[in-house]
Amino acid sequence: MNLHPSIAPVEIGDLRPTQISLGMREVEERRAQWRERKGKDLEEFLARHVVPTVMGPKERHYLLDHHHLVRAMIDQGVKTIMVSVTADLSSLGDTSFWVVLDNRSLCHPYDGEGRRRDFKAIPKSIAKMEDDPFRSLAAELRRAGGFAKVPIPFSEFQ
């Protein structure tokens, strides 16, 4: 397993999610922020938002964070994005890959109603993730000062 992060451009549509759902209201908020940016501001925004991934089976990039932002960028027609590959788990088979992610709390196989699902329920495309209105509620609560954003994946589910 490679533990040395590397940064590379990736076709945004090729990114795979590590969770089943996201808050579409939060995606719309990100899209509105995106539309406000122009020229140099847009370039700086992209430079500040390198998305962390882990390399999985078949050399595919799996998102570890920023699912909402990536979905908004897909909806806005962005074709490529910079990713930071934090680990290379491509030598693992599908089952082992998901078990490793789960044991490291790097995936969230819960649906929009909070039910744990099989890893096969995680969509293969960011565009096919289901809406979870509670994710949007959590984002609003965080922005209102209800809790701090921390660098722990899926902490808002706690």
At a glance:
The chain is an alpha/beta fold.
Based on the model shown, name its key terms.
single chain; 158 residues; alpha/beta; Conserved hypothetical protein from pyrococcus furiosus pfu- 392566-001, ParB domain; two-stranded parallel sheet; 5 helices; 34% helix
Q: Would you kindly provide a written description of the structure presented here, covering whatever features stand out?
A:
It is a single chain. It is built from 5 helices and 6 strands; from the N terminus they run E-E-H-H-E-E-H-E-H-E-H. It has 158 residues and is an alpha/beta fold. It has a single domain, classed as Alpha-Beta Complex (Conserved hypothetical protein from pyrococcus furiosus pfu- 392566-001, ParB domain).
Q: Secondary-structure blueprint of this entry?
A:
Elements: E1 6-11, E2 21-22, H1 24-36, H2 39-48, E3 51-56, E4 60-63, H3 67-75, E5 80-88, H4 94-103, E6 130-131, H5 133-143
Parallel strand pairs: 2-6, 3-5
Antiparallel strand pairs: 1-5, 3-4
Task: Give the termini separation.
Answer: 28 Å
Biggest sheet overview: 4 strands, mixed
> How many strands?
6
Helix content: 25-40%
Topology order in helix (H) and strand (E) letters: EEHHEEHEHEH
Low-confidence stretches are none
* Count of alpha/pi helices: 5
Class from helix and strand fractions: alpha/beta
Question: At CATH's second level, what is the architecture?
Answer: Alpha-Beta Complex
Q: Whole-number radius of gyration?
A: 15 Å
Domain tally = 1
Provide the spatial order of strands within the biggest beta sheet: 1-5-3-4
Q: Say what the CATH topology is.
A: Conserved hypothetical protein from pyrococcus furiosus pfu- 392566-001, ParB domain
Subunit arrangement of the protein:
single chain
Beta-strand fraction estimate = 15-25%
What is the overall pLDDT average? Answer: 85
Determine the CATH superfamily: Conserved hypothetical protein from pyrococcus furiosus pfu- 392566-001, ParB domain
Shape: globular
CATH class: Alpha Beta
